Amino acid sequence: MGTTRREVLARSGVLGAGIAFSGAVSELFAGTAAAQGTGGSAGYGPLIPDPKGILDLPRGFRYKILSREGEPLRSGEGKVPGHADGMHAFRSGGHGHGHDRGHRDDSVWLVRNHENRMDAKAPVPTVPGLTYDPAAKGGCTVLEVDRRARVLQERVGIAGTSTNCAGGPSPWDTWLTCEETEFKAGEAGHTKDHGFIFEVGFDKRRPTSVEPLTAMGRFQHEAVAFDPRTGAVYETEDAFERPFGLFYRFLPKKPKGGYGSLHAGGTLQAMRVPGVPDLSVVQETGKSFDGIEWIEVPDPLAKETPIRFQDFGKGGITHAQKLEGCYWGGSCVYFVSSFAKSADGSQADHYGQIWRYDPKRNRLTLVIVFGPDTDLQLPGEEPDNICLAPSGGLMVCEDGEGAQHVYGLTRGGEVYALARNRQNVGTPEEPAWGEFAGVTFSPDGATMYVNVYDPGTTFAITGPWH
Among residues 26, 56, 12, 45, which one has the least CA distance to residue 436? Predict the structure, then answer.
């Protein structure tokens, strides 16, 4: 189907924002738990201006700020770091950390990334036993939140990592935090190599390991998703310069081995789509490619050459610009390319793609293409973090310019605005980095948690969800 931006505006009641896209949106939910939800209504009405100038929501919805950059961490370990990015909500399960107090069995654990580089003004505090590289300023923080959105705990999950952008949850309830960098020891002030994945836990059964999962590769990581049947892990790479990133598959030596098993190693492969060196050239939604090839990465540690530059033999390898969000749904893995620009070196332009890979059929399909829309002469919204909503839809974090939104996408292909950031609206000339990130739902589906990147802020949003 095709939808213009103007039609989206008329339908959602949002002035000055919207999504233009094409594709069979219902495919995103095939075989998922979300497909069993209602998801029949398109949105919750127009966004109501927030008198506090922080977050606009539909009528009946409320937000609460759980944590904000610069405030003291409740653990006393320092201040809340900045650049809040990828995040996931885990059910408590009644297993608290050794020094936890006020713990409740019905609480939720939020593990939150901080995409801090070496120039970050609000670094993750270094903590003994939880710090990889004392010179690096990124990492994760962990919040325990009860059903009333009261923060019971807030502490450092891992420190001394760099540019922790996204990641993904494991089947055994740990968070894999990904470094979106590939600096080596001695470069830009780092004392250790970076560009790895780390496994972050939140209780005594699953403690954080500060040893990187080196077999999963050293590159500019973005997100990961697990195949629950085979244990394979899919990884996206958001490389900033040509040749752009790759889509990877990691085959663990101990598939479905549980906590700590990823440290046993495995095989890292990169995806080759025969005859397609750059995914940006594919513009037709529903276009499928069979016979996908998975080529073993010659040097996963990239000791001499970044992986995307390495020799993958005859036929080369398939690249894509801005590979970001990644999730498993039903029997397939979905991943996002936020945009592609020929001016940057891509072979074609687009304003966002969502791809589906079906391991059983070994088939890759372009499911959604976002923008551009000529009606308002504006660029597309550059979708970034995505998650399935318990009500039967998809939530998309906007990562573009100007006003930033969290959009909902129904199975019927209808788009609506769920939230708008009002606290730091920028312009193309002076971006404010007010993007949303880390959207996730509580296990009971009653609360949506989401971050604003800068100033690093975590919100809990409740309301009359469908």
Answer: 56
Rounded Cα–Cα distance for residues 4 and 25 (Å): 15
Handedness of CA 8, 382, 334, 408 (dihedral sign): negative
Contacts of 418 by beta carbon, 8 Å cutoff, 6+ apart: 43, 44, 57, 58, 395, 405, 406, 407, 408, 448, 461
> Which is it for strands 197-200 and 221-226: parallel, antiparallel or unpaired?
unpaired
When computed from its CA atoms, the radius of gyration of the chain, rounded to whole angstroms, is 21
Average pLDDT over residues 181-188: 96
What count of other Cβ atoms lies within 10 Å of the Cβ of residue 15?
11
Q: Tell me the pTM.
A: 0.88
Distances 356 to 28, 234, 245, 362, 367 between C-alpha atoms, Å:
8, 12, 17, 11, 7
C-alpha to C-alpha distance for 233 and 319, rounded to whole angstroms: 19
> Does residue 463 register a pLDDT over 60?
yes
Tally Cβ neighbours within 10 Å of residue 344: 14
Residue 384 token pair? 């970034």
| Cβ contacts of 303 within 8 Å, gap of 6 or more | none
**Strands 404-410 vs 393-398: parallel, antiparallel or unpaired:** antiparallel
**Domain count within the chain:** 1
Identify the domain containing residue 446 by its residue range. Answer: 2-462
| Residue 94 burial (C-beta neighbours within 10 Å; 0-12, 13-18, 19+) | exposed
| Domain at 331, CATH number | 2.120.10.30
For the record, the structure tokens of 26 come out as: 């219902």
Do 344 and 355 touch, CB atoms closer than 8 A? no
Report d(CA 35, CA 315) in Å as an integer: 38
pLDDT in tens, 121-156: 999 999 999 999 999 999 999 999 999 999 999 999
The answer on pLDDT for 177 being more than 70 is: yes
What beta strand segments (E) does 92-148 contain? 108-114, 138-145
At 395, the pLDDT band (50, 70, 90 cuts) reads confident
